[in-house]
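Design review, sub-item: ligand-bound model
Attendees: FS, YL, KQ
YL presented the inputs for the tryptophan complex:
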Amino acid sequence: MRVVSGMRPTGKLHLGHYIGVIKNWLELQKKYDCFYFVADWHALSTKYDEGLDLKELSIELVKEWIACGIDPEKSTLFVQSSVKEHAELYLIFNMITPVSWLERNPTYKDAMQQPEYKKKNNAGFLTYPVLQTADIVIYDADLVPIGEDQKPHLELAREIVRHFHFIYKTEIFKEPKELLTEVARLPGLDGRKMSKSFNNAIYLDSTDEEIWQKVRAAKTDPARIKKTDPGHPEVCIVFDYHKAFSPAEEVKEIEEACKAGSIGCVECKKRCAANISKIITPIREKKNSLKNDEILDIINKSNKKAKEIASKKMEEVNKIIF
Ligand code: TRP
Ligand code: SF4
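KQ shared the predicted structure:
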């Protein structure tokens, strides 16, 4: 079984990515033939005017994947724009995809409610799911790990595949299935959505001190003024982080101690930060030990492997059409 998934290279990874995506990727690479790629063309669909250094960002992203334990011996870690066949298949799919299908996409509809996107309304943003379809089906992917928000894109992918099959009287593509990541979304440390612009995320290359400073500043249960006040862990962000990163017994102990008013928030936060450090320290150290040249070698090898598969598929596609 083959797994294909991509990530846009828009900046450093944080704990939200780690529990939401990377942990899942780590599990999948044990069982499946995984293709994980840097979706640099997709990054351009919204950020074409931001002057991103996509080459640098792509190397950094793959470096972070490997630092997290994604194994380049097991998984194929490539860069989308290096496999031009994605663009070729995207072009073909654009020919057969009704604009109305794309306008129905919730991501697109939401964006059109926002003035900045509405003003741009670039074709590449509208056709984002068409490129995503090409990314997936060019490798005959069986499974595509994605977040809930990407579900409509997978539905569109299947529709485009069926449409292609109907038009050309063929069965050349696999209909991909989504693998939904079931984890609850990790909030930012201030309770808002985790985001670079809010400075409320913990990055995977943080030092212990940086981790502590972020956790220290987190909002807790406002009902707790004195240590002996009984707390409500269910409304506390620090507790969300405990649930995500502390061992189960410790989570239980903290929950009881908080409710009983027998643990202070500072101590609770220290333990939380320590558990986060245990996860991040090896990632940070591995990341710092990896050289760009090494990563480039890995990417080049993977690009070649991906290209071999993709170009075979495009040959078949072109035979059907021309
Ligand atoms: N759209 C995905 C995201 O924003 C990234 C992506 C691009 C992707 N192509 C893909 C994911 C193909 C899975 C399969 O998260
Ligand atoms: Fe939150 Fe911990 Fe304080 Fe309870 S003790 S309110 S869980 S920080």
